[in-house]
Amino acid sequence: MSHFTFPLPDVGEGLTEAEIVSWRVKPGDEVAVNQVVCEIETAKSLVELPSPFHGVVNELLVSEGDTVQVGTPIMSVAGDGAESPPDTGVTDAVGDAESSVTHEAAEPKNLVGYGTGPSTPTSRRKRAQAPADAPVVTPAPAQRADLPLADSSPVIAKPPIRKLAKDLGVSLEAVTGSGIGGEILRDDVIRHAGQATVFRNLETPEWPENREDRIPVKGVRKAIAQAMVKSMFTAPHVSVFVDVDATRTMDFVKRLKASPDFAGIKVSPLLVMVKAMIWAVQRNPTVNSTWTEEEIIVHHFVNMGVAAATPRGLIVPNVKEAQSLSLRDLAMALEKLTLTAREGKTTPEEMSGGTITITNLGSFGVDTGTPILNPGEVTIVALGTIKPKPWVVNGEIRARMVTTVAASFDHRVVDGDVASKFVADVAAVMEEPALLLD
Predict the structure, then answer these.
(1) What are phi and psi of 275, to 5 degrees?
(2) Residues 337-378: pLDDT tens digits?
(3) How far is CA 349 from CA 11, 343, 422, in A?
């Protein structure tokens, strides 16, 4: 019987090391080509690694939580030289009973390309014995055999959804599933968590018995630290603030939510803010630039970065070519970006190439702040909370929905007059969203 080792690969982002977050297999399990065997955390994202071999897991060479260099062997697989099983769909019983397809140990096969193959047979270890009369579901050949895992709960939810619920502190028993047979879907969990309180700890925990925690500086946290230090001590920051009467923006958002064209699409003041920034960039293009020691590159397109607080830390994915999107398409892109970030599924490509960034401090109840530039960019805008405040209208004090718009700039590129004009343009749209209409 031959033995083959699986080295930690470079997953396409030039990484030099990664942490083994969790193993999906154990010694003695049979694995198929392209079957996910572990989850790793790089400096940018969580990545699922598929097996390049078909055979039986002989040994896991790296423990969960360990950080290893690219090329380090992480798993060994054994095969007896038998032919690999036919490429058929896997027949599972509902509740993830043991697969009815039994594979003999097979010779490991080299992985042709990363990513789970659409019809690759998957061998799972037995989790629960299905009743004799349990219905049998056979996925179509072009689909993944990715049925909900069974546990002691009657809740129907796939593993990624269970992980999302755990990260957001949501009890699946309290969620009403909108999928087939009551299956809980991603949007069900997000809706239940509530946008404004997804990452807010509403309960005060007891003091821990241990006097201190020691958190290794690695992965996303290490990348955040390096990026913020480089940005803060390389680019000379200057910040500008303006209070804005956003009453008409709130009315506009309310009308969009009631519009059939936006049915089922998440609409918030952030959408108006992003659209306002795109308009203001068009009028003040140097705020959408990149500084190099030899030249200033002014971008005539907008890859809109959105700072997202996730269970893994702060990341900044961006919406590509945002200037070309309609208001509806922009709303859909922002919603997808946010949901993907919360699930920890943002790809390195989605976090590269940004030209300007927005951070929504208002979602945490914060009025304003002085944001630090995303490295490589020269402008970042912060949107504060929008709440009733006294405001002078036609000489009279009235209650209006007021917010504060703050922005930081790289003063090597953006002069004070340009910075002020840009922020004033953003504020103008927040005060009168009709400016967005052609």
Answers:
(1) -65, -35
(2) 988 888 888 888 898 999 999 999 988 889 999 999 998 899
(3) 11, 16, 28
| CB distance 435 to 248 below 8 Å | no
Q: Known catalytic residues?
A: 411
Amino acid 155: pLDDT: 79
Q: Provide the pLDDT confidence category of residue 95 given band limits of 50, 70 and 90.
A: very low
**Which of residues 261 and 16 earns the better pLDDT score?**
261
pLDDT exceeds 70 at position 14 = no
**Residue 421, CA distances (Å) to 237, 289, 381 in order:** 17, 16, 13
CA–CA separation, 188 and 201 (whole Å)? 20
Specify the range with the lowest mean pLDDT, choosing from 60-64, 229-233, 417-421, 423-427.
229-233
Map out the domains of the chain with their CATH numbers. Answer: 1-127 (2.40.50.100), 148-193 (4.10.320.10), 219-436 (3.30.559.10)
| 36: Cβ contacts below 8 Å, ≥ 6 apart | 24, 48, 49, 50, 51, 116
The pTM for the full model equals: 0.57
Task: Dump pLDDT digits (tens) for 107-131.
Answer: 444 443 343 333 333 333 333 444 4
Beta strand 304-306 with 318-319: parallel, antiparallel or unpaired? antiparallel
User: Per residue, what are the HEC states of the chain?
Assistant: CEEEEEECCCCCCCCCEEEEEEECCCCCCEECCCCEEEEEECCCCEEEEECCCCEEEEEECCCCCCEEECCCEEEEEEECCCCCCCCCCCCEECCCCCCCCCCCCCCCCCCCCCCCCCCCCCCCCCCCCCCCCCCEECCCCCCCCCCCCCCCCCCCCCHHHHHHHHHHCCCHHHCCCCCHHHCCCHHHHHHHHCHHHCCCCCCCCCCCCCCCCCCCCCHHHHHHHHHHHHHHCCCCEEEEEEEEECHHHHHHHHHHHHCHHHCCCCCCHHHHHHHHHHHHHHHCHHHCEEECCCCEEECCCCCEEECEEECCEEECCEECCHHHCCHHHHHHHHHHHHHHHHCCCCCHHHHCCCCEEEEEHHHHCCCCCCCCCCCCCCEEEEECCCEEEEEEECCEEEEEEEEEEEEEEECCCCCHHHHHHHHHHHHHHHHCHHHHCC
Closest CA to 168 of 334, 24, 312: 312
Is it the case that residue 419 has pLDDT exceeding 60? yes
Q: What is the pLDDT of residues 225-266, one digit of tens each?
A: 888 888 888 888 999 999 999 999 999 999 999 999 999 899
